[in-house]
Amino acid sequence: MKAIIPVAGAGAKLRPHTYTQPKALIPIAGKTILSFIVDQLHAADITEFIFIVGYLGEKIQDYVKQTYPHLTCHFVFQTERHGTGHAIELTKNIVNNDEVFVVLGDTICEYDIKEVMASPYSMLGVKKVDDPRTFGVAEIDDEGFVTHVVEKPSIPKSNMALVGLYKIKETHFLFECLLHLFKQDIKTYGEYSLTDALDCMIKRGAMFKSFKVKNWFDCGKKDSLLESNATLLKKFGGTIHESVVAENSIIVSPVSIGPGCVLKNAIIGPHVAIGANTTVQHSIVRDSIIGSYTNLYEVVLDNSLIGSDASVKGLSRSLNIGDNTEIDFG
Question: Which of these, 100, 86, 261, lies nearest to 173 by C-alpha position?
Fold first, then answer.
């Protein structure tokens, strides 16, 4: 079994952070989004990974090589983005007809991965949503088999959304259907969709079973990212690195504070994740994500997302600041 993780997207909804950092490397609850995905798959004994990279792909490559030197990793560059179907097709020669587990690069979910891996069927992860029109949608029969999938339907016939988890056993079949989309120029919203390829497989006789995820953490936009950060910190409790220096400061759990951080006359938490080597002085920070090598001085931050190598001085309430930024409210 090989894992495929598409992380070539530009992350437009998380700008300005994704101008300088891939969305998959944005920190959440003390880890990157990508690490949550890779660690979960590796815990299920997957040791070979294919990363589809594009925008700022070298940063993903460097991060993976440094963090996971023990894994077998391939990097495929998607220089032009034509959809998830196009991205997956680029992995054909590396997949070589092996079974794959595809996880979209902004998908953090709670589910029984070992049970999914043990199933004799191909599997699609789903979760009930209030408004399925912005998702891929699965129609499911009484026995849990998927009978039809469609991308962002205007009139959904199901409220079961595809969450971005796909275990595919018949990969030769997958690449045949992708080729069919390309030859017939079948696009959805101007892109070659993995959902369309899966529906092609179902129509041609492939059997997919659905599995429900317990939780689905949305990391696509600032507000939902902060909400997911808070939920994951509550669940896992957060960590404070032993090297953190805290002088005359109060820490309200749960928080995650990385190595080399210095806190002086600060109140941190709850629901705060801070990267490595960041300094916070005379400040109050809650419900926020702060990057690495950042300096905060005399600020009050609530529901804020601050990038790495940033400097913020003065008084503020809610910010969304990218990397390498300097702001003085004095």
Answer: 100
**Residues 114-117: contacts with CB within 8 Å, 24+ apart?**
114/44, 115/211, 116/165, 116/167, 116/211, 117/1, 117/44, 117/45, 117/167
Cβ–Cβ under 8 Å, residues 271 and 286: yes
Number of domains in the chain: 2
Position 184, amino acid: Q
Residue 57 backbone dihedrals phi, psi, to 5 degrees: -60, -30
CA distance 190 to 56: 23
Residues 6+ apart with CB under 8 A from 79: 54
Domain boundary among 198, 220, 242: 220
Q: For the chain, what's the residue count?
A: 330
Given a cut of 50, the residues of the chain with pLDDT beneath it are 10-20, 319, 321, 326-330
β-strand partners of 211: 125
- The candidate with the shortest Cα–Cα distance to 162, out of 126, 197, 212, 204, is 126
Residues 201 and 231 in one domain: no
Q: Which residues are registered as beta bridge partners of 306?
A: 290, 321
Q: Which two tokens stand for residue 250?
A: 């109060």
The string of pLDDT tens digits covering residues 195-254 is 999 999 999 999 999 999 999 987 777 888 899 999 999 988 889 999 999 999 999 999
Q: Select from 197, 220, 243 the last residue of a domain.
A: 220
Please give the DSSP secondary-structure letter assigned to residue 68.
Answer: -
Task: Give the list of residues 6+ apart from residue 273 with CB closer than 8 angstroms, or none.
Answer: 27, 28, 29, 30, 229, 233, 238, 255, 256, 288, 289, 290
**Is 111:211 a contact under the CB 8 Å cutoff?**
yes
14 and 147 within one domain: yes
pLDDT of res. 21: 58
Q: Which amino acid is at 251?
A: I
Question: Sign of the C-alpha dihedral, residues 177, 179, 181, 183?
Answer: negative
Cα separation of 119 and 144, whole Å?
Answer: 13
**Do the beta carbons of residue 210 and residue 145 sit within 8 Å?**
yes
193 and 263 in a single domain? The answer is: no
